[in-house]
Automatic annotation (TrEMBL):
Keyword terms, alphabetized: Germination, Lipoprotein, Membrane, Palmitate, Signal
Domain of life: Bacteria
A GO term from the CC aspect: membrane
Name of the protein in its database record: Ger(X)C family spore germination protein
Main localisation: membrane
Pfam families linked to this entry: Spore_GerAC (PF05504), Spore_GerAC_N (PF25198)
Keyword field contains Lipoprotein: yes
Protein location: Membrane
Organism this protein belongs to: Lentibacillus kapialis
Signal peptide limits: 1-22
Keyword Ribosomal protein attached: no
Gene3D superfamilies found in the cross-reference section: Nutrient germinant receptor protein C, domain 3 (3.30.300.210)
GO biological process: spore germination
Membrane topology, from the record: Lipid-anchor
């Protein structure tokens, strides 16, 4: 059991013991994973993975479902099935079905926040199907601890800067701030494994679109410095042909490079307030890890040419992503937040920025410095 999970269980024991009517661990189930789905007839389906102690020789981790018009009713139905009370103060991950995310999540998140023992650090994610489907499939696999497996996927990728950290606190913080939209990781069940496959983009509290997980760093780099992230880009062969150490295949037009970002940072500036024109600067210091073609990078001219091609590739991907975001009218980068700092006459409202963002213009500058050339094939 992870240190984080041990800490949560200890805290829950202390909280339970401090109640007016104390209950022992054997009289409670401690929910760790909580799923929310939309069912028929305006019903909510809840799925919980919980710990139950006091059953010698049995796995203390179990799964239960409930259904009701509200989350509270769904939890009561789960309690009825079990014959004991589930405690929700230690929930580590709240997982939403895709339909629930499309309909809007803020009512569920407000309900979670009102719980006196709910942690603001509760992780949030979206299933690409339903929360129940993802949880039950993973729970049915041998030698898999669902209580650890699902939160660990998000924790590891957040710490590696693959995705932004998404907790109950920071999702709501961005939701209530005009000029920026929240995101969530999307989890999928593939080949008997749960994987992080995409990043969900929200317009307010509603799922509006998604991007591949390898593009999430374009959002992340504008909110924090990135270190240690590996990224792959496709490059054209022609501009680097004179630096190749051997002839490529006759029909080959491009190749791939994998690099490690030693330091990545970005910023947004409003350069023309009247015309709403922004400048985006992205800076990366990288080490080359792999090349699918033998490119000689010993000479400064070759390194400079290689840096320029990576810069062009990143710029093109970023501009394509911005075009999608404007089409969906979602702003996870926070261009509206930058505009808000220079809007002095009146506060920026969400509806005002929704009207403006699709027509905003940008220029993007990317600077890549190769620190180490790595190995060629």
């Amino acid at each position: 059991m992870s240190c984080r999970m041990n800490g949560i269980l200890v805290l829950t024991v202390m909280l339970i013991s401090g109640c007016v009517q104390p209950k022992t661990l054997e009289e409670n189930g401690i929910m760790n994973i909580y799923g929310v789905d939309i069912a028929g007839d305006d019903q909510l389906k809840t799925t919980a993975v919980f710990y139950k102690f006091g059953a010698p020789g049995q796995d203390p981790s179990s799964l239960v479902t409930g259904q009701g018009k509200t989350l509270s009713k769904g939890q009561k139905r789960m309690n009825y099935k079990l014959g004991f009370q589930l405690q929700s103060g230690a929930i580590e991950l709240e997982l939403f079905g895709k339909k629930a995310a499309e309909n809007g999540l803020i009512d569920y998140l407000r309900a979670a926040s009102r719980h006196p023992r709910a942690s603001n650090n509760r992780l949030l994610a979206v299933s690409d199907t339903t929360a129940k489907n993802l949880i039950t499939k993973l729970d049915g696999l041998p030698n898999i601890n669902v209580n650890q497996a699902l939160p660990n996927i998000i924790d590891v990728n957040s710490h590696m800067n693959v995705i932004p950290e998404v907790t109950l606190h920071n999702f709501q913080k961005l939701y209530y701030e005009p000029g920026i939209d929240p995101v969530m990781p999307i989890l999928s069940y593939q080949n008997e494994r749960t994987r992080l496959t995409a990043l969900a983009l929200f317009k307010g509290d509603q799922l509006a679109g998604q991007i591949p997980v390898d593009q999430a760093f374009y959002i992340n780099v504008l909110h924090q410095n990135i270190r240690g992230l590996q990224q792959e880009v496709q490059l054209p062969l022609q501009p680097l042909k004179k630096y190749l150490l051997k002839e490529p295949k006759s029909d080959q037009t491009d190749f791939y490079t994998l690099f490690n970002i030693k330091k990545g940072e970005g910023n947004i500036k409003l350069v023309n307030k009247q015309n709403l024109h922004f400048h985006t600067q992205l800076n990366f210091e990288v080490n080359i890890l792999e090349l699918t073609e033998s490119v000689g990078l010993q000479k400064p001219a070759a390194i400079n040419a290689f840096e320029q091609e990576i810069e062009k590739a990143i710029k093109e991907q970023y501009e394509q992503l911005l075009s999608k975001l404007q089409k969906w009218n979602v702003d996870p980068m926070g261009y509206g937040r930058t505009y808000k700092t220079q809007k002095r006459n009146s506060p920026l409202t969400e509806s005002e920025w929704r009207d403006k963002f699709p027509d905003v213009t940008f220029d993007v500058d990317v600077n890549v410095d190769i620190l180490d050339q790595g190995m060629t094939p």
